[in-house]
Design a protein that fits this description.
about 30% strand, 7-stranded mixed sheet, alpha/beta, about 210 residues, about 30% helix
């Protein structure tokens, strides 16, 4: 039988820490969370490997390093309100909750939303709130947010998400003019001023919605 605890330890050590992620809270969260429980049983052997894993409906569970990098860049602190666009399997939301965030996550695919809702509920994540909707519209009733993370790539930064970003606040999103080819953009709002920083090329599934593809 595969020792999945050892697989998680190896994942954190060789795929994440070895690539420069030093945030102890992020490393501990990804060591604690049983990533294999966020994919179908037939794919659990792939859960800790260095690549995305399909979760159905043309969506994926992101590569472990990508989850760690984006979480590290967000710089989440306990008590922050974090909006996630693209619940998917629920894994990223669980990582954010382990950091002490109050997580609001939006998914547009009904089947994935329901699977993630049941999964996270069974795992006891009371600080994760789920909504079935067009993620590019955000969650205006719960705004503003200290942090916003988008786990799908769109042609531009959705205006509703910028409107819902707090001050100070950080928004992290893959943006690109072609599908599956984006650059990871961090938007920061400080004292009413927006600034952007580019963290290089990435490839995410499509951000579909009124302000996406």
């Amino acid at each position: 039988m595969v020792d999945l605890r050892r697989n998680r330890e190896r994942m954190v050590r060789t795929q994440i820490a070895a690539r420069g992620i030093r945030n102890t809270a992020v490393l501990n969260a990804m060591l604690k969370i049983k990533r294999h429980l966020f994919v179908d049983e037939a794919l659990q052997a792939q859960a800790y490997q260095d690549h995305p894993v399909p979760i159905g409906y043309k969506q994926t569970l992101s590569q472990p390093y990508t989850v760690a990098l984006m979480t590290d860049l967000l710089d989440v602190r306990p008590g922050m309100r974090v909006l996630e666009i693209g619940t998917g399997s629920g894994y990223q939301a669980a990582v954010l909750a382990e950091l002490g965030a109050e997580v609001y996550t939006v998914e547009r695919i009904p089947e994935l939303h329901e699977i993630a809702r049941r999964r996270l509920q069974d795992m006891g994540y009371a600080r994760i709130h789920l909504k079935l909707d067009d993620g590019t519209l955000g969650w205006p009733e719960r705004a503003p947010f200290d942090r916003i993370i988008v786990t799908a790539g769109g042609p531009e930064i959705p205006a509703p998400l910028l409107e819902q970003l707090g001050d100070p606040g950080v928004l992290l999103i893959p943006v690109g003019g072609a599908k599956r080819t984006q650059e990871l953009i961090m938007v920061q709002r400080q004292n009413g001023t927006l600034s952007e920083e580019n963290y290089g090329n990435v490839a995410f599934v499509d951000l579909v919605g009124s302000h996406g593809w």
